[in-house]
């Protein structure tokens, strides 16, 4: 089935302009002081259809494909919104150069890549998820298969892998040569008294800098999804979340990840947790996250952002308000003397009208290249800056803040 460009764009934009979000009786939007103080971009006009994702939705895979564009083109061709964004994030899952998702993801402490994913389909009110899935790159599609073909919502570990193979997904080793070498370097530097030789610190060629909030300083090179520590070891909590609102106002969401690098085998982050890594309510909107899953899980951030939008907050305000809740729910060992977290986290949200926004804890390093998320609408695919709670200068000094947890000394 295909739809005309007029149906795809025109009807949605008109509907979006006049649409009111359902509001809880008597509930007034509560915008905190933090939200008032923090940097927020000007409100964006509603436009449908619209897709937003983490910035790696704009990354080009070895064939030059961009996940968010693939999703957009499928949507324009009449695809179901969840099918479109699952195909969009699959570009990132199959890209061996993205070390935060799927094939090529950084492994656990045993050198095994375990992937997590979840998705929700607004029109049918259904959801699916997989956790600790090994040897299958297409975690988001497996999560959708759980949704489509079973009466369950969440499969993990060996059972999830068996299910995926039964559904026709092809097993493969997800550990690329680069990630295997990075794992050996991480292992070698763990303990100076073990039998692994400690390699001299090395600035890796091609390590990310600039652009998406990275900067090249004495101790680290970092980007939104992977940063290199002073020993040349990459770390990540990187993930991709993608959310869509169609021209007619249907909504879907998906999140997929290889999770925290060097994690304890069996660790599951926020990505496959419905209501944390992503959430979608077809009457209100969708939201999801990337970054430190342990922080997001405690606030059910995807769900909370959607509930804040239900109360009338804009997507950006909802994301900022969730970030504020994250800080309020952070144990003191992970806060500096000013009460600021030693980690970063990002939220992305769209509402039924087609308004969108995203927020993170800390501003990126380079104001000329602000840390960004990806959006695609009738104006094309592009990066736009995050709202943030704290400026770059307010970060605890000399410590990597994105993609890793740094325990205060
Ligand atoms: N947000 C991805 C993870 O913590 O696993």
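Sequence proposed for the structure above (409 residues):
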């Amino acid at each position: 089935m295909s739809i005309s460009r007029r149906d795809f764009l025109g009807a949605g934009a008109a509907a979006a302009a006049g649409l009111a979000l359902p509001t809880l009786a008597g509930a007034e939007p509560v915008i905190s002081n933090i939200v008032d103080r923090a940097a927020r971009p000007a409100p964006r006009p509603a436009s449908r259809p619209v897709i937003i994702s983490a910035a790696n939705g704009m990354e080009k895979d070895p064939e030059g494909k961009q996940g968010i564009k693939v999703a957009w083109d499928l949507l324009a061709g009449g695809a179901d919104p969840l099918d479109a964004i699952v195909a969009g994030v699959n570009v990132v899952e199959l890209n061996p150069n993205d070390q935060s998702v799927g094939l090529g993801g950084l492994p656990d402490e045993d050198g095994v890549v375990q992937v997590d994913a979840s998705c929700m389909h607004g029109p049918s009110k259904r959801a699916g998820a997989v956790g600790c899935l090994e040897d299958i790159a297409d975690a988001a599609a497996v999560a959708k298969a759980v949704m489509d073909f079973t009466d369950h919502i969440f499969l993990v570990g060996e059972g999830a892998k068996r299910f995926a193979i039964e559904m026709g997904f092809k097993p493969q080793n997800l550990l690329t040569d680069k990630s295997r070498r990075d794992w050996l370097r991480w292992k070698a530097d763990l303990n100076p008294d073990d039998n692994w030789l400690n390699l001299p610190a090395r600035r890796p060629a091609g390590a990310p800098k600039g652009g998406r909030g990275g900067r090249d300083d004495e101790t680290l090179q970092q980007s939104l999804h992977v940063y290199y520590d002073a020993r040349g070891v990459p770390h990540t909590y990187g993930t991709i979340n993608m959310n869509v609102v169609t021209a007619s106002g249907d909504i879907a969401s998906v999140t997929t990840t290889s999770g925290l690098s060097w994690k304890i085998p069996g660790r599951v982050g926020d990505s496959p947790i419905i209501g944390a890594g992503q959430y979608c309510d077809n009457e209100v909107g969708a939201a999801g996250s990337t970054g430190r899953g342990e922080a997001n899980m405690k606030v059910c951030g995807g769900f909370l952002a959607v509930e804040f939008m239900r109360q009338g907050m804009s997507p950006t305000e909802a994301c900022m308000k969730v970030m504020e809740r994250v800080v309020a729910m952070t144990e003191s060992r992970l806060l500096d003397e000013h009460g600021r977290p030693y980690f970063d986290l990002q939220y992305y949200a769209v509402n039924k009208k087609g308004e969108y926004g995203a927020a993170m804890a800390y501003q990126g390093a380079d104001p000329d290249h602000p840390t960004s998320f990806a959006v695609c609408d009738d104006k094309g695919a592009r990066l736009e800056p995050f709202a943030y709670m704290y400026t770059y200068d307010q970060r605890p000094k000399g410590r990597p803040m994105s993609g890793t947890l740094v325990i205060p000394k």
